[in-house]
Amino acid sequence: MVFIAGQTAPKGRKMGHAGAIIGGAEDTAEAKMLIMENCGIHVVKSPATIGAMMASALRG
User: Fold this and answer.
1) 3-class SS at 27?
2) How many CB atoms lie within 10 A of CB 53?
3) Residues whose CB falls within 8 Å of the CB of residue 55, separated by 6 or more in sequence, listed in order
4) CA geometry: angle 43, 6, 53, nearest 5 deg
5) pTM to 2 decimals?
6) Which of 7, 20, 24, 35 would bridge 29 by S-S if both were Cys, CB 3.0 to 4.6 A apart?
7) In sequence order, which ranges of 1-60 are alpha helices (DSSP H)?
8) HSE-CB of 43 using CA atoms within 13 angstroms
9) Backbone φ and ψ of 12, nearest 5°
10) Closest CA to 3 of 48, 55, 60
């Protein structure tokens, strides 16, 4: 399971270390989340949903 921070960062603005790892237009939080979802990884859009997603994943 994964949560990608930086989803609400303004476009074009680097935000601390998270901004330092953005390499281009396709290297955004949204793009990373889509890649992980396509690989079968459980992705949550908010830390508030981690518990519910974990319970769901454990139930199978």
Assistant:
1) coil
2) 17
3) none
4) 20
5) 0.67
6) 7
7) 16-20, 29-38, 50-59
8) 17
9) 85, -5
10) 48
Q: Give catalytic residue positions.
A: 17
Radius of gyration of the chain (CA): 13
SS3 assignment, position 2: strand
Predicted local confidence at residue 27, as pLDDT: 73
| Main-chain phi, psi angles of 3, to 5 degrees | -130, 125
10-46 pLDDT, tens per residue? Answer: 776 666 665 555 566 667 788 889 999 999 999 999 9
DSSP 49: G
Q: What share of the chain is helix, strand, coil (3-state, %, to 5)?
A: 45, 5, 45
Q: Are 18 and 9 in contact (CB under 8 A)?
A: yes
